[in-house]
Amino acid sequence: MNKPINIKFWTLCMVQNGDYVLLLDRKHDHFKGYIPPGGKVEFPESFTDAAIREVKEETGLDVSRLVYKGLYEYVNPVKKDRYMIFNYWTDSFTGTLSEETREGKPMWVHKEEAIHLPMQPSVRRRFPFFFEEGTFEIQVEWDEKNNKEGPVRIRRT
Q1: How far is residue 16's CA from residue 77's CA, in Å, rounded to a whole number?
Q2: With 147 labelled, which of 36, 65, 74, 92 sits at a CA distance of 20 to 30 A?
Q3: Distance of CA 8 to CAs 5, 96, 101, Å?
Q4: Distance of alpha carbon 33 from alpha carbon 119, whole angstroms
């Protein structure tokens, strides 16, 4: 019998304030470094609602008018896993930034400096696409044998 495909969904939201972007200085688990707020989509929550919720939980801010920017996904053909991350951008927010949350310390970072901070390769790879016209699709095939990223396909859509 064939193994069913395992699909998991996440969101990520780039919040921009002029020349600054909101990033979390994340210091725990395997996903350390600077990252925009985001997280798992809870069933039956919509992707947009998940992005709004995650920004609130991780930063204290209420965001609105999210713009869909693209899809980032990992596929593992051996395990039949597919991890899909729906990426959003906004410059519309209210509220007060939290000092610290369980996911890290939220902070405003100049957009030009942000790319030079410690960042996971997946975040660094998609970072410039948030500020370009149009949408993107990035697919990373996981190399199970060598336990690392394999072929990467980037498409502007």
Answers
A1: 36
A2: 36
A3: 10, 31, 24
A4: 5
